[in-house]
Amino acid sequence: MDHPAKLDGIWQIVKAELAGEDMPAFVAEKIEVELSGGSYTVRFAGEVSDRGTVMLGTSGEHQTMHLTGVEGANAGRTIPAIYRHVGDRLRVCYGLDGTAPSAFATGTGQKLYLATYRRK
Question: Global pTM?
Answer without folding.
Answer: 0.93
